[in-house]
Amino acid sequence: MFLKESKAWIVAGLFFFVLGIAMVFVIIPWQIAEVKDVLVTARFFPRIICAIMAILGADLAYLGYRKGQKAAAAGIEERKLGVSMTGAKYIAVTFGVLALYVISFSFCPFIISTPILMFVLMLFYGQRSKVKLIGVSVLLPVITYLAFTYLLQLRLP
After folding, report:
1. Residue 9 CB coordination number (10 Å)
2. Which helix (H) or strand (E) holds 81?
3. Is the pTM of the predicted complex or chain greater than 0.85?
4. By C-alpha distance, which of 45, 24, 63 is closest to 153?
C-alpha cells in the first residue's frame, strides 16, 4: 500500500492519537488497579507516556495536513511512502515474536522472557556480534528489572 507522504503522516498521527486517548481513558483504568494512599500509583507512568503519544500523534496529523496543503498550493508532487514485501516480512515476524512474548508471561517471568525476545529479534535483524547479542539482551532487561523493582518499587510480571 502506498500513500502520499502527507496522507501517511495524517493516518499515522490519527492512529497514535486515538490509541493514546484509548489507553489513557479505557485500557489503563481497565488493566491497572487504582491504589489509594500512595504518592505515585502504577497508572501514573503509563498515563504520562500515552498522553504524550496522543499529543505527538495529533501534532503529526496536523503537520501532515499542513504539508499536504503546502504541496497542493505549490503544485509539488509528494513522495509516495509504502511497505515493500521485505518490510512486510519484518513487520509480520516482529509482531509474531511479540505475540509469543506476551503469551510467555503466563509461563515465565519478565526477567526470563525479555532476554530471549531481545536475542531473537536482534539476531533476526542481523546482529551477529556475540558480545552485543548477549550483552544487550541480558544487561538491559536486568537493569530494567532492578530499576522498576528497587528504585520505582513496581512489580513486573
Report:
1. 22
2. strand 80-82
3. no
4. 45
